[in-house]
Amino acid sequence: MMLLFGITSQATSGTEYAPVGLGPAQATDLEYPVTQQLRFSELRVSQTPGTGAGSVEYTLMRNGLATSLTLSIPVVNPSAVSDSAADIDFQSGDTIGLLADKVGVISSAPTSVLISVGEG
C-alpha cells in the first residue's frame, strides 16, 4: 500500500501539515481516518527545490503523534528516501497525517512536493 501527500505551496518557516492528494500545506493539523490495517516503512520525497541553507523535516503522524518515520531534506535537494528501522502499523480507527517542519534559513520553500509513504 502506498499513500501520497502533495504540497503545492508552503511557508518558509514553522510547522505545517501536508494534505493527502495535492494542495497547499496547512497550518492546522490534517489527520485522515484509517479504515483498514496499514503498514509503512519508507518515506520518499520529490520536490522542486527551494533556496536557502535550511531543510524540511517530514514526519509521518499517527493519532496526532510523531512516528519514527521521518526524513530531513535540504530545500535545495530534488529528492530523498528514508527507511524506518521498524514498520509503522496503523489500525482501523487510527488517524494518519504528515508534518512538514522547516528548520534553518529558507529563502524560498520547495514547491511541487510529492511525499509517498509505503513499504520499503
CATH topology (fold) name:
Jelly Rolls
Please tell me the CATH architecture by its name: Sandwich
Helix count?
Answer: 0
Query: Cα distance, first to last residue?
Result: 10 Å
Short structural description:
The protein is built from no helices and eleven strands.
Structure characterization notes:
This protein is mainly beta. The protein has one domain (3-118): Sandwich (Jelly Rolls). It has strands spanning 3-7, 15-17, 32-33, 38-48, 51-52, 55-62, 65-74, 79-90, 95-103, 106-108, 111-118. The strands form 3 sheets. Strands 2, 3, 6, 7 and 9 form a 5-stranded antiparallel beta sheet that branches. A 4-stranded antiparallel beta sheet has the order 1-11-4-8, with no helix packed on it. A two-stranded antiparallel sheet has the order 5-10. Strand 6 (55-62) and strand 7 (65-74) form a beta hairpin. The model has no long low-confidence stretch (mean pLDDT 92).
